[in-house]
Amino acid sequence: MIVTLNPKILHFSKLNPQSRPSSRFHRTRTTSLTTNCKLQNPQDGKSSGSITKTISLSDSAAPPVTEESSLKGGGNGGGGGGGGGFLKRLPRKVLSVLSNLPLAITEMSTIAALMALGTVIEQGETPEFYFEKYPEDNPVLGFFTWRWIFALGFDHMYSAPIFLGMLALLAASLMACTYTTQIPLVKVARRWSFMKSDEAIKKQDFADTLPRASIQDLGVILMGDGYEVFMKGPSLYAFKGLAGRFAPIGVHIAMLLIMVGGTLSATGSFRGSVTVPQGLNFVMGDVLAPIGFLSVPTDSFNTEVHVNRFTMDYYDSGEVSQFHSDLSLRDLNGKEVLRKTISVNDPLRYGGVTIYQTDWSFSALQVTKDGEGPFNLAMAPIKINGDKKLYGTFLPVGDTNAPNVKGISMLARDLQSIVVYDLEGKFAGIRRPNSKLPIEIDGMKIVIEDAIGSTGLELKTDPGVPVVYAGFGALMLTTCISYLSHSQIWALQNGTSLVVGGRTNRAKNEFPDDMNRLLDQVPELIKTSVD
Amino acid sequence: MIFSILEHILTHISFSVVSIVLTIYFLTLLVNLDEIIGFFDSSDKGIVITFFGITGLLFTRWIYSGHFPLSNLYESLIFLSWAFSIIHMVSYFNKKNKNHLNAITAPSAIFIQGFATSGLLNNMPQSAILVPALQSQWLMMHVSMMILGYGALLCGSLLSIALLVITFRKVGSTFWKNNRKTKFLLNELFSFDGLYYINERNSVLLQQNSNFSFSRNYYRYQLIEQLDYWSFRIISLGFIFLTVGILSGAVWANETWGSYWNWDPKETWAFITWTIFAIYLHIKTNRNFRGINSAIVASIGFLLIWICYFGVNLLGIGLHSYGSFTSN
Predict the structure, then answer these.
(1) Alpha-carbon span A68 to A75, nearest angstrom
(2) How far does A151 lie from chain B, in Å, by closest CA?
(3) How is residue B123 annotated by DSSP?
(4) Transmembrane segments in this chain: where (chain A) (predicted)?
(5) Is the pTM for the entire model greater than 0.90?
(6) Which stretch, A508-512, B113-117, B237-241, has highest mean pLDDT?
(7) Measured in Å, how far apart are chain B's first and last C-alpha atoms?
(8) Nearest-Cα residue of chain A relative to residue B317
(9) Lowest mean pLDDT among A57-61, A470-474, B190-194, B285-289
(10) For residue B243, which residues of chain A lie inside 8 Å, CB to CB?
(11) Residue A529 per-residue DSSP state
(12) B321 touching A (Cβ < 8 Å)
């Protein structure tokens, strides 16, 4: 992209009054003047964006404009078109507005602020909760009442229109930015642009002149250091780490992929949870409920899941270590298609549906009293505090229809040991169901036969997961790669002396040291004649 | 029994060595010890000793408890101070490019370790068992990446805060002349790119400091440039770790609970931290906004990391309740 300057339109901006007196660094024949100026696009008559470029005027042909301009604003996207109609220019205008970096930064900050607000305001509570917490007569911060919350959808922030709208806007910005700025950047970076003049080379971030050196030696040394070297006549161009230039594009594409996958998940998945006592079964289709409007049930929803066995492992201290469910899947004809024991962190996958072991519960206690029974007593949850649970049941003794019937109470924290209390409520003993040892309570012989647990399963089918996983992998990889530094080196053989210049985009501090180290290796030619 | 004694010894060794290193650094600031005794290098060796001490401590806990030592808040704090000592060692190996990370990482390591062992966290130093949800290979990857990410990002944002402090300070630059660092910087001054950077400096800074002598301005600019550069590099590294950590956490959640993102407070705040540092990196690419603005964003990031790491744990709710103060 070569820019020709029309002196009439050129005017000096007041922003940076000092013009760089770079002439004292250039001991060459030509005079150099560096200016910061504001370009006006002659076609529209109005400026299409302030582009601050440093342009060096010298006797030789104008060097290609540096890439820095394309990182800003990106308003050049539409500069090339002719005088076409307004409709043709509208998408370009929209693109240029969307790919504006400050806009993207504002969007990101707004999303961050909304997310933070979502953690402060309780999500998903009943309306009465908000009436109480953010009342109208005593508003938080002086103005924030429940009307604000319901109007903006803050009680379900992460699916509220304002939040999703911001995410969609960010996605649009990402796409626009990738199209207008990043992809042209790739073209510029790939161009093997040989620099034809000494001044152009000396203007780089790092430049040096070697008085008696050969360009071939430099080429060989650079190749040894991992650069890709191209030579054409007396000039040389080498680069290293090109992946570091491409990787940011990959990052943005990966983020778009994740957003697409997330949208798929939100609109097309099914989920459901169920607590099944050991020995019973259920049909997947009965449990799974659609989440979005694109959810379509599949054939595997007709599968019947049978819980064969539910067991728990314990640590020596008595805490729960792991719980397992032995499941068999049977199809419509009753034939078993899959059998697997699942546990937490080890789910079962069949036909697109995944079954996770997430919870456990105590279903019933089987006891015999004086040889009668066995009675299946349902266990009721008394206190559930995350992983710590307490269940209890009651075996009535005597006249069960009397108003204050007494009985034997049994409490259990897990399936391992049951604590038994007598008719007065006093502690009687602890029994393990496996031992089948009887316990004497008020003349009755109670044997605890079995503790029947129920498994808490969560079922899910999610079409967006492969897309999201691909996005995750791409994001991790490209973020790592974009840490690499893209270095470019130009060199020109000027008689016996060699002019070398280079720049890099990330590792700016180490670059001069690395360059000096390389240049020190270039041998000095002490021949008297030059070929 | 042996293991707990070993653990105690290693904890005490690492803590005391870091304190000694810190004392030496402070003394170096006031009095130029390098010309008296060659102390400067020994503080680097001190950090290496601390690193081995903490590594030994973590290994001991691993063997003793049977699970990777990252299951509650105490262990993650020890891991964080370990991360700081690793980052400090980067400068130890990169001898030719002496940077100023030393001043940040050593005090951070000691504060973290001090807090962890101070006894504010009741019974946590004892190894606890893992609940079923935490018994997974993903634990190692997710939590270690997050802690390493937090460590690097904390270093980077502290460097940015230092940059802001130095930029906006108008007095008290007398001790600069005696500082060994500036003598070293002098070697770099007479190079092409040094002057190039000065010319590119924002005119705002020039006007602010015009009443100072030129040489003092010069050292200050050079130091600010160095701080800016190192802050950028280490925040980029921390950002990579944070990305990998968040994503591996999401994959782990999907394997365990069937949903890769639950808008859990801790997840949300980690994402907010990620967003802030993404904003920081984007500001850095654009030459118009550079300099002060990126440093301000990184300083905000510092606060956010602490909210994410500690603040959410104070609530003790959600999927990440394992790390809370109240859990034992």
Answers:
(1) 13
(2) 21
(3) T
(4) 162-186, 242-264
(5) no
(6) B237-241
(7) 21
(8) A386
(9) B190-194
(10) 475-476, 479
(11) S
(12) yes
A345: number of Cβ within 10 Å: 20
Check the CA dihedral A464-A466-A470-A473 and report its sign. Answer: positive
Residue where the block lists tokens 């994001």:
A475
Mean pLDDT across the stretch A39-59?
Answer: 41
Q: What phi and psi values does residue B14 have, to the nearest 5 degrees?
A: -60, -40
Strands (E), B126-237: none
B144 Cβ neighbours under 8 A, 6+ residues apart: B70, B79
Write out chain A residues lying below 8 Å of B226, CB-based: 509
Strand partners, A355: A348, A459
Backbone φ and ψ of A446, nearest 5°? -110, 130
* Contact call for residues A423 and A441 (beta carbons, < 8 A): yes
Residue B80 has pLDDT above 80, yes or no: yes
> 3-state SS string over A429-480?
EEECCCCCCEEEECCEEEEEEEEEEEEEEEEEECCCHHHHHHHHHHHHHHHH
pLDDT value at residue B41: 62
Question: What does the alpha-carbon distance between residue A494 and residue A415 come to, in Å, rounded to a whole number?
Answer: 87
- What's the sign of the alpha-carbon dihedral A12, A18, A22, A24? positive
Contact B290, B155 (CB under 8 A): no
B312 contacts on A by Cβ (under 8 Å): 119
Residues of B in contact with A483 (CB under 8 A): 236-237, 240
- Residue A377 class from Cβ within 10 Å (0-12 exposed, 13-18 middle, 19+ buried)? buried
Pairing of strands A304-314, A320-330: antiparallel
∠ CA A412-A273-A470, nearest 5°, is: 125
Distances (CA, A) of B81 to A185, A418, B85, B299: 41, 45, 6, 20
DSSP per-residue letters across A171-240 = HHHHHHHIIIIIHHHHHHHH------SHHHHHTSSEEEEESS--HHHHHHHHHHTT-EEEEETTEEEEEE
Element of type H or E holding A375? strand A372-378
The encoded tokens of residue A228 equal 């890709």
Q: Does B237 touch chain A (CB under 8 A)?
A: yes
Q: B133–A344: do the CB atoms touch at under 8 Å?
A: yes
Q: What is the largest CA-CA distance in chain A?
A: 124
Beta-carbon-side half-sphere exposure of residue A207 (alpha carbons within 13 Å)? 16
Residue B41 structure tokens: 């290098």
The per-residue pLDDT for range B146-184, each reduced to its tens digit, is 989 998 898 888 888 888 888 777 544 444 444 445 444
Within 10 A of B275 (CB to CB), how many other CB atoms are there? 18
Provide the 8-state DSSP code for A4.
Answer: P
Who among A25, A52, A344 is closest to B256 (CB)?
A344
Structure tokens at A120: 């402060």
Contacts of B287 in chain A (CB under 8 A): 68, 71-72
pLDDT tens readout for residues A361-416: 888 888 888 878 788 888 888 877 766 788 888 888 877 777 878 888 888 888 88
Q: Where are the alpha helices (DSSP H) in A269-402?
A: 284-287
Distance separating alpha carbons of residues A115 and A175, to the nearest angstrom: 23
Which candidate, B164, B175, B159, B166, places its Cα nearest to that of B26?
B175
Mind listing the pLDDT tens digit for each residue in B132-149? 777 777 778 888 899 899
Q: What is the dihedral of CA A478, A479, A484, A485, to 10 degrees?
A: 100
